[in-house]
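In the lab's daily routine, each protein ends up as an entry in a very long ledger. A line of letters takes care of the sequence, but it says nothing directly about the fold. The fold becomes a row of whole numbers, each drawn from a learned catalogue of backbone shapes. The protein below has been through that process, and both of its lines are reproduced in full:
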Amino acid sequence: MSLRFALSEGFGGMRRAVAMTLISTGTIALVVLSLGAFAAVVRHVESLLGSLRSQSEIEAFLREQVDSTSAAALQQQILSIGGVERVSYVSKERALEIFREQFGQDISRVLTFNPLPASIKVHIIDSALTARRVQSVVDEIRALPGVEDISYPRTVVEALDVRSREMTYLALVVGGLLAVASLFLVMNTVRLAMMGKRQMIELLLMAGATRGFVRGPFIVEGLVQGLAGGIIGSALLVAALDALNRNRVLGISWEHAVPLWFYGAVAALGILLGLVGSLLAVRSFFREAREG
């Protein structure tokens, strides 16, 4: 009986206040769209940063006296270091070939010996590609016997680390502000609806109705507005990303910027905003009624 009453009164209340319902739903849709679009951009930037990180590798140059057997043992030692994904050995001969391919010069024609050292290239697991973790791996490799020197793009790794943190902080601040704004608007919409039914609510309470029974219709309003706003916002986000992809905005492919589940999460966010906003409105109304 209470569920039927909640649904009936909830939808009836929205029909009686069409303008406010549309404003609230539209606001949730715009906020969800903004949050979704911003999150998509953040994901895309993080993906680019991750791609750049994955191209960063550590190269450990070996001492002249390290033979192939000792080099193989060194590779196993490096693989045992936490955060290392894989290693590859570059012999002196291979290093000479790489130099010739990259610079178009054969130094063996000038020198009677090969001055290039053998090395071990170290690839770090993506989740460990932070400046602090990479430096820790470098320090552990440098301490191994047989390692002469180490080369790695420290400046690049640190810069990517900083940019990643900046994007995270920006996402939290912007997302938080938009979410608060949406909650405030939903809360006010539901609260106004409750104020308009103040006398009916007081009569129900006097007749013995529980607060849960009374708040039901208004929770339904918040949920429906959140659901509608979430679906609309998600649909608009799909259209926006599709338009960006078709027009190659900034020369970027947005086709795989976000996975399919992301759109479902965006719609769910609208439902959450509507639910939380209505709960806050009901709580605020009953608190004011009690104090009054």
Remarks:
- The longest strand covers residues 84-90.
- The mean pLDDT is 76.
- Residues 2-51+160-291 form one domain.
- The chain has nine helices and four strands.
